[in-house]
Amino acid sequence: MAVYKARAYFHDPSLIGDEDYTWNFHVASATSSDDAWNKAAAQAENFLDVLCPATIELVKVNIENPAAVNGLQTRLVGTHGTRTVTGDPLPGWNVARFQASVNTGARAHTWFLRCGLTEADVAGQLLTATMLGVIDNFLTALEALGTFVDKDGEAFTVFSRDDRVHMRQLGWHRRTRPGFKRGWVPR
User: Fold this and answer.
1) Which of 23, 162, 172, 174 could bridge across to 97 with cysteines, CB 3.0–4.6 Å?
2) How far is CA 122 from CA 21, 31, 42, 117, 167, in A?
3) How far apart are CA 145 and CA 137, in angstroms?
């Protein structure tokens, strides 16, 4: 079974500064790269439909596996989220965290979901019960798809989420410049 790196590209005009972001994951397909792209698109649309408000657009989905025939594909999508939200949007660095592992006791992989959080989705430093229910619905749908795998092609079976709001900085990328050997250099 071939494993493909997948990347879903999103655009959120309500964010100030970094309106474009991605969600990275892996999919596996035993049949074809077209099947792998369809699985990646299904996962990205699950993310969009369950977690994202109408302001967020899924721009394109990309799969990569140079070892497979036609293993590099990027297709435009152009659909919008469907979650109904109230309140003003929070800055993009406010995210929800979930983890998945292939079995109990195995290494947990971590993702930070930039899902268009608003003031109504957060109470202090915690996500509201409604938002936690939305994230649980996303994880249930992700598990039901059965195509969410690690880089070795093993399906994730154990999911967990955190009830706190986390922070992921926007606009910083690790790169080197002549004379600099370590550290974060702003763009």
Assistant:
1) 162
2) 21, 43, 28, 8, 13
3) 12
- The two three-digit tokens of residue 91, written as one number: 């800055």
Closest CA to 45 of 27, 31, 22, 61: 61
> Would you say residue 176 lies in a domain?
no
Query: Does residue 34 lie in a domain region?
Result: yes
pLDDT at position 52 is 92
Euclidean distance between CA atoms 126 and 153, whole angstroms: 33
Q: Tens digit of pLDDT for each residue in 130-159?
A: 999 999 999 999 988 888 999 999 999 899
Question: Tokens representing 168?
Answer: 């992921």
pLDDT at 182 over 80: no
Token readout for 18 is: 């970094």
Is residue 33 in some structural domain?
Answer: yes
CB atoms closer than 10 angstroms to residue 36: 29
Contacts of 182 (CB under 8 A, 6+ apart): none
